[in-house]
Each structure stands twice: as structure tokens, then as C-alpha cells.
Amino acid sequence: MKTGKITYTRKNGKMETVDYLYQEKYNSKIQRLIKSVKFRFPQADIHSIFYDGRTINRDAITELSNCQFIRSNQKKVEEK
């Protein structure tokens, strides 16, 4: 059965979306890759940065985290 952008498949009497299965496979792949590169902090993310008492500019980090500077072909180097 096909409805809009989501394709449904029937398996064992349940409706499961192809998108859901694809996302599960993709997430497993990402987790496997994270384990294989042995990051120092594999669960770290941009939202868990502790800014208080540090000279880190929250706005600059947020701007860099969206990678817009790469898409617009800009160089980002800040000097103190």
C-alpha cells in the first residue's frame, strides 16, 4: 500500500513503514561507525557544552555547528 511519501509494508500482521526500517538501519550504522572510530566522548553533542566560566562564545559555536560556512564556501578562522 502506498500513501503519499510513506510506503507501508505488511509483515507478520503489523504495518511497518519502510521509512522506520530505513531509519533504524541508518542509526545502527552510525552507532557502529562511532564505536569503530573510538571517539573520546561518543555521546557528546553540541547541546551539552558547558560555557559558564569559559571563554567560549556560545553564538559562534552555534553558528559553526550548522556548517553553513561550508555550504557558502567561507573560511572561519578567529584570532584572539
Topology (elements, then pairings):
Blueprint: E1 2-3, E2 6-11, E3 14-17, H1 18-37, H2 58-65, H3 68-71
Antiparallel strand pairs: 1-2, 2-3
DSSP strand count: 3
N/C terminus separation: 59 Å
Low-pLDDT residue spans: none
Judged by helices, strands and strand pairing, the structural class is alpha+beta
Count up the domains: 1
Helix content: 40-55%
Sequence of strands across the biggest β-sheet: 1-2-3
Count the DSSP helices: 3
Q: Helices and strands, in N-to-C order?
A: EEEHHH
Strand content: 15-25%
Largest sheet: 3 strands, antiparallel
Radius of gyration: 20 Å
Shape: extended
Mean pLDDT: 77
Describe the structure.
The protein has one domain (2-71). It contains 3 helices and 3 strands; from the N terminus they run βββααα. It has helices at residues 18-37, 58-65, 68-71; strands at 2-3, 6-11, 14-17. Strands 1-2-3 form a 3-stranded antiparallel sheet. The radius of gyration is 20 Å and the shape is extended. The model has no long low-confidence stretch (mean pLDDT 77).
